[in-house]
Amino acid sequence: MSTDIRTEVQDYLNRMRAALADLPDAEVAEIMDDVGSHVVEVAAELGDEFSAEALSTRLGTPEVYARELRVAAGYPMPTQALAVSGAKPPVAARFAFWSLVVGTAAAFAFGVGGGEGAELVFLVGLCVIAAIVLLVRESQLLGKVEELPENVALQSAIKQADQGGLGKVFGYFRGLQPAWWLLRALLIVLPALFVRGFSLFFVIGIGLAALSLVAGPKGKIDRRWLWISLPATGFAIGIGLLLLGSFSTYRVQRVFNLFGSSSPVTYVSTEPRPSNIYVFDKDGKPVTDVYLYDENGDPIDTPWTGCDGSDYSSDNKYPKPKVDYGRGSGPCKESTGVPFAVPVPTVTTTQSPSSSPVPSSSVAPPSVTPTS
User: Fold this and answer.
1) pLDDT digit string, tens, across residues 143-158
2) Which of 21, 72, 186, 237 is the most exposed place for a label (fewest CB within 10 A)?
3) Angle, alpha carbons 12-14-17 (nearest 5°)
4) Full-prediction pTM beyond 0.70?
């Protein structure tokens, strides 16, 4: 480790020690012994990208890091720190923090909801983009975000969970981060691949997937990349849960239609259709040149291939000619007649006993008006 890096690390540790100066010396020494080696390891991981700003971006400012350790260990806040914390935090810092929180939640809801609420997600996305612009333009803004009381409480809760029973679980998933970054990019781009045609949604999906790949490793060094990484994670988890629910109900195609098209899903009936239909009237006589339609007004088509090999699959005219393709070298013949006769059942009506026939004499003959 070079002299400049050692100097920056020592300055970072000195500021942490000053922030813990109100605690007993033995407690401060124990905390600094545990933290000092971790700070040195992080500085070594940064390598050529090491700087005081990069170290603060990775771990938080010395004061914020010391405050997190104080809360995790159960020590009270110093009187001076409480007085300082009474001041109102910058509006930009609070805007950036809550843009990240709301943006991540909105991205998750957009994914798990199958693309619903796109207008709201678009507005929240604009807020996240504005927060990213502020963080890039103001180098000190990230440190102010980390000093927010809500952020300090959140980071302390995460560290307490990490130090508790969930530490092994967190450590296991940290080792899978590179694989997760690839899976996250795939889940983000997956709905865009099922959009019909080339659209803006497809371009946005590809761009967000590429950004999520870059934001994964960058976020470990520069926390400003979290404003891209966390919403991308929320959206990917939402898509993953949506797919799991869809697989369980065999509705995968329905899922991607939510993103690609508003048209309903059509299902093809597996019931066999007859190749020809013959229609008879009430007297049992065949009726020709009949066109059949279903209850929706759509033609009921059946395929028919003539002797010349032509296929009239879109023809709903019945009955179709009967084709005898011949055997061996025999000629193919088409016959338009009906090859069978059917007995049409007669419907007999029974007269009610209570009704009596009307005498023929009581029926008045129709009047005839003479014409001149």
Assistant:
1) 788 778 888 788 777 7
2) 21
3) 115
4) no
